[in-house]
């Protein structure tokens, strides 16, 4: 009987230790997968927020094979998507100069440029690029924003004759750079 009691105490300690290890491994997994930064419909990047928690679009985790891709949202129909891509630049540059440096490559990727122009998103300078894929006929709207040496590209992709591009473009208005905190 004495051995049975000691054995039960030992098993209890093993179970508690195992449970603690499992909880810590889920915490580590969540950190690795970037789940902690996500809330329903929102993405909190380093220096910016994209908040669409009242939207019917669903958020999914980006593949780890594309570290610059920070968030993916899909329309209720599943035919449209919105992605957030983040890049660190080697040096500060002007928005228009930055966009012009790579917009010339669109043809290489099978895209016809439809329109491009500067605009403002919530009083923040941005650049809009509309394009269409030559083969698939998918249409893209990209909004590029710069702050210091950080570039954010928000891309809407949908079918050519879909009204979801307008809905996706409306979601982009929920992007904002975080306010700078000053040290006291």
Number of helices: 3
Q: Beta-sheet strand percentage?
A: 35-45%
Shape: globular
Secondary-structure-based class equals: alpha+beta
How much helix, percentage-wise, in residues?
Answer: 25-40%
CATH topology of the largest domain: Protein Transport Mog1p, Chain A
Report the CATH superfamily of the largest domain: Mog1/PsbP, alpha/beta/alpha sandwich
Q: How many independent structural domains?
A: 2
Spatial extent as radius of gyration = 23 Å
Order of helices and strands: HEEEEEEHEEEEHE
Mean pLDDT across residues: 81
Give the CATH class of the largest domain.
Alpha Beta
Which residues form runs of ≥5 with pLDDT under 50? 17-39
Distance between the termini: 65 Å
Q: What does this molecule look like?
A:
- The protein has 2 domains: 1-33; 39-177, Mog1/PsbP, alpha/beta/alpha sandwich (Protein Transport Mog1p, Chain A, 3-Layer(aba) Sandwich), CATH 3.40.1000.
- Residues 17-39 have low confidence and may be disordered.
- The chain has helices at 2-33, 95-103, 164-172; strands at 38-39, 42-45, 48-51, 58-60, 69-74, 81-88, 111-121, 124-133, 139-147, 150-158, 175-177.
- The chain is globular.
- With 184 residues, it is α+β, with helices and mostly antiparallel strands.
- Strands 4-5-6-10-9-8-7 form a 7-stranded antiparallel beta sheet, with helices on both faces.
- It is built from 3 helices and 11 strands, in the order H-E-E-E-E-E-E-H-E-E-E-E-H-E.
